[in-house]
Amino acid sequence: MLNTNDIGKVFPPVTAAVEKGRLRFFAKAIGESNPIYTDEAAAKDAGYESLPMPPSFFFSLKMDVPNPFENYEKVGASLARILHANQAFVYHQSVMAGDSLTFESHVADIYDKKAGALEFLVEKTKVSNQRGQHVADMTTTLVVRN
Amino acid sequence: MIGFDDVHVGDELPVLQTKAISRTTLALFAGASGDHNPMHIDIDFAQKAGMDDVFAHGMLSVAYLTRLLTGWVEQAAIKKINVRFTAITQLFAEISCSGIVKEKFERDGTKLVLLMIDAKDQNGEIKISGSAEIALN
């Protein structure tokens, strides 16, 4: 069970490096064949400093900690019962391999539907780079099936 | 490169058709995406949780949707993506991603195109639907 007292709870920040090898592996996993995502020379020819980080990879990098689901479990959302309900990204600046990103997250909302049979956890995350520039925002909504 | 004036309300993006999602697809995506939730890679865990089998990460189809967008415009043009997961994506699903221009507008001096996007399986069942904002000159 979730508890609305956890609205506003701040999760520990996560800092993670954007690594070329990991971006190449991600490109392979999602069937991306555009060489700018895997070949640094192609990326540079296209005007990028290095491999660009693809748009949904923010979600992945945020999970670059020993137990990425710990925050959710601590507020009562167990892994076996959660589903992803909604995901939003707002992009402010490009991110490249070689950057380091910091993710600052908090619980923005908790609510239920169907008399508590479904509970929703809304997490908002601000993403900054190593220069302190605000590069993106993410909103993740999880549904807990009770 | 596509310009703002080249785009019209009702225009459809070229459909992105992906290959059937296999257990290998999910294993690779788990490793590459960092989402190691066993629900997607471990049938024993999934069955204990009351599912018949593992199912695909929702974010895999989101990644396919981002390929739809980056196949159409440069990545830097993408300003917002907002999607809702409407159904679980089963193993062996063949996901196709579509987009249609819903609106053209200006905000703070930036010319933007609002797209409605979705990801469907081979039976036409919508798995993900939502919108994206693209800045064009």
TrEMBL record, chain A:
Residues 6-138 form the FAS1-like dehydratase domain. GO terms for molecular function: (3R)-hydroxyacyl-[acyl-carrier-protein] dehydratase activity. CDD domains: R_hydratase_like (cd03441). It comes from the Bacteria. InterPro entries: FAS1-like_DH_region, HadA-like, HotDog_dom_sf, UPF0336/Enoyl-CoA_hydratase. SUPFAM superfamilies: Thioesterase/thiol ester dehydrase-isomerase. GO terms for biological process: fatty acid biosynthetic process. PANTHER family: HYDROXYACYL-THIOESTER DEHYDRATASE TYPE 2, MITOCHONDRIAL, HYDROXYACYL-THIOESTER DEHYDRATASE TYPE 2, MITOCHONDRIAL-RELATED. This is FAS1-like dehydratase domain-containing protein. It comes from Colwellia psychrerythraea (Vibrio psychroerythus).
From TrEMBL, chain B:
InterPro entries: HotDog_dom_sf (IPR029069), MaoC-like_dom (IPR002539). Residues 17-100 form the MaoC-like domain. It holds the Pfam family MaoC_dehydratas. PANTHER family: (3R)-HYDROXYACYL-ACP DEHYDRATASE SUBUNIT HADB, 3-HYDROXYACYL-THIOESTER DEHYDRATASE HTDX-RELATED. This is MaoC domain protein dehydratase. It comes from Colwellia psychrerythraea (Vibrio psychroerythus).
